[in-house]
Amino acid sequence: MDSSSFLPVLVSFRLLLAFIPLRSISGLQHDHQLPVSSPLTSYARLKEGLWLYGHDIDPYAGGVFRHSPLFLSIISTVLPPLPIVWALSDIVGAWALLCIWRARQGVGKSSSGRDGLVAAVSLLNPYLFLPSLALSTSTFENTAVLMALMFASEGKPSGALLALAFSTHLSISTFLLLLPVLMLLVTSPVSQLASPQEFRGDLRTACKYAGQFAMYWLVLFGAASVMVGGEWGWLRETWGARFVFSRRIGLDLHCEQPYCDNLTLPDLTPNPGLWLNFFTEMFNHFRPFFLMVFSVRTIHWILFTSFSCVSLQRHDAMYASFLLVGILGIFKAYLTLADPGLFPSMFVLFPEVYPYLRHPIVTTLVHIHAALLLPLFHALWVTEGRGNANFYYAASLVMGAAGGMGIVDACFAGLRIAFGDVAEGERHKWAVVQE
User: Fold this and answer.
1) 152, 239, 303, 431: which has the fewest C-beta neighbours closer than 10 Å?
2) Smallest Cα–Cα separation from 186: which of 159, 152, 158, 228?
3) What does each C-alpha distance from 120 to 62, 338, 410 come to in angstroms?
4) Residue of higher predicted confidence among 373 and 260
5) Kindly report the CA angle at 38 between 270 and 294, in degrees rounded to 5?
């Protein structure tokens, strides 16, 4: 695939869609028309928050606007809320993915034979394409994650940590990527799955980078508070586990703001996430406990990926980031199609594991099945009022199962590749043991 001619075609096509006023595209921008946006990423709610902010009204007072204050400042002063901005974000994300691919292949800034394919997987992925056309702010979240991984793979700690800090302010769940990003900064982005080696990174340097990340995060935290008039009410009882425990001991604390929304789930607007299926039928008496369980369950996956990619002498931080992106695409509180969509796009970075996948065709078919059912059942239930909510819940469960199948298969292939090709008659001589 000739990247010199194919890449400009992809970029031109994406920019062209930003200027063509198609009726079907404008319909995606309405609130809750398709599972391409959530209460935390909706374009309609963003416009409402910008209007309130422009008229000196606290946008967080009504419990409708739940975006980060950084969006209020950037979009109201620097970037106008126009489709071209989302198109440019898609192009930057595709470029970041392409730079990650080149760094992993060790070719530097020079082009490779798969550049066009890498860009196409990002720009033509419908899971990323449709939310961007709907002007969902999840597009910026994915771009920030890819930028952090790109700078880390290129050995640029300041850019990587700043991009990751910005990403955590847009979506607090991306904080789970801190550990693999730190590992990536002190190791090499080149694949080490097939040839495991001992860890050669400097832990002191990693700790220094962690402090630098904390500094960036605190600066953005203070800036976000200043942008909303110096008030701290938008972040009452942040970090949802603290909110849950405070409710359990009888304190009357409230958390209506964007960070806490990822952990307390105050808005049960239909979305393809697993949290919705569970908490729509949850009694209020048990809600705080299970909110804590769901939050802790998401956090513990850091240990899982650390064991699979750091132990066994693999130390492939990029693969650990890849697995964590897929996990967040399943267990995120307010899910949109853009969240599970980043995982298959990053699959293109690891062609060495393709021969060791167990059921890629089945996983792909399940994804297609869920992708077709979700908009259909959503329209029947929410728009037409003719369908049953259980059908939409079932489709979202299929989407979660498809993501889980992809993660399990990717994890198996990443561990299996170290053994290489084993003859059929020699397999009985191999055994899995724990040291």
Assistant:
1) 431
2) 152
3) 41, 16, 21
4) 373
5) 75
Which amino acid is it at 414?
A: G
CB-count exposure of residue 6 (10 Å: 0-12, 13-18, 19+) = middle
Quick check: helix, strand or coil at residue 36? Answer: coil
- Residue whose pair of structure tokens reads 């561990």 in the numeric block: 415
SS3 272: coil
Residue linked to tokens 């990822």: 262
Do residues 157 and 209 touch, judged by C-beta distance below 8 A? yes
Q: In this structure, which amino acid lies at residue 149?
A: L
HSE (side-chain half, CA atoms, 13 Å) at 206: 16
Of how many residues is the chain composed?
A: 435
Is the Cβ–Cβ distance between 352 and 416 less than 8 Å? Answer: no
Q: How far apart are CA 383 and CA 376, in angstroms?
A: 10
pLDDT tens by residue, 176-186: 888 889 988 98
Q: What is the 3-state secondary structure (H, E, C) of 221-252?
A: HHHHHHHCCCCCHHHCCCCHHHHHHHHHCCCC
Q: Which residue in the block uniquely carries the two structure tokens 């942040």? A: 238
Element of type H or E holding 396: helix 389-416
| 34 vs 36: CA distance, rounded Å | 5
Tell me how far apart the alpha carbons of residues 364 and 23 are, in angstroms, rounded to a whole number: 30
Q: What tokens does 191 get?
A: 């694949």
The DSSP call for residue 80 is: -
> Residues 300-309: pLDDT tens digits?
776 666 555 5
Q: Cα 294 to chain center, whole Å?
A: 17
pTM: 0.85
Q: How far is CA 412 from the centre of its chain?
A: 22
Integer CA distances (angstroms), 101 to 111, 239, 346, 409, 418, in order:
10, 34, 9, 21, 21
